[in-house]
Amino acid sequence: MGEAISGSLNISFGVLLVLFAALLISMFRILREYERGVIFFLGRFYRVKGPGLIILIPVVQQMVRVDLRTIVMDVPSQDVISRDNVSVRVNAVLYFRVVDPQKAIINVENFLAATSQLAQTTLRSVLGQHELDEMLANREMLNADIQRILDSHTDAWGIKVANVEIKHVDLNESMIRAIARQAEAERERRAKVIHALGEMEASEKLVEAAQTLGKEPNAIMLRYLHTLTEVAAENNSTILFPLPLELLSKLNGAFKDLTEKSKN
Asked: What pLDDT digit, counting tens, does each position of 213-225 carry?
């Protein structure tokens, strides 16, 4: 009888010893450099501890780990209708980190899911206020607007949004063809404008040249001779030699005088 009692006592002592060792081990927690522990005492917030060795009172204290490293979150593709009624699919990437572990655990149930949903709705609302050309050309401005709005909303959750980058703006085939036609028409317009400007500048220079040549009667003859020199250098078989009208009128007058004298 005594042996049975002593044996049961030994077993009970062994069980108590194992339980005490388990409680003792559960008291010690190790947090890495990028981790913090939000401590609750009987369900109420106590303090934020870490990094390093943390001692908890079993049963009455609980700890929630929080990672302080920058989190990279891929925002799923969103269907967006721009201000000029163009349907596009846009996705982005979000960079954020927890700066206040207390707010991240107490003020929101799941800060990762909350930040993801807020990023999706903000992406649709911000891009819906801009036209397609602005989405394609002014991504830096749109990124800054989305980052500012997200940062202001997540401040109550202890989260700092560092950066937002729009990755892709996907268009359907009909819109891609329309943009290609628009770009082609724009290039044709620029070509016509440049050609017209060239014609206008050439005409102005011709007027200036004509005024300069008109100041000296012999200048036009020198220009004729220079043109003949250029034509002769190309080994052409036909050369047209222009003559001034004054010279032709004088030759015509002299021919008439000779004819009248011969008749007399």
From this structure: 677 666 666 676 6
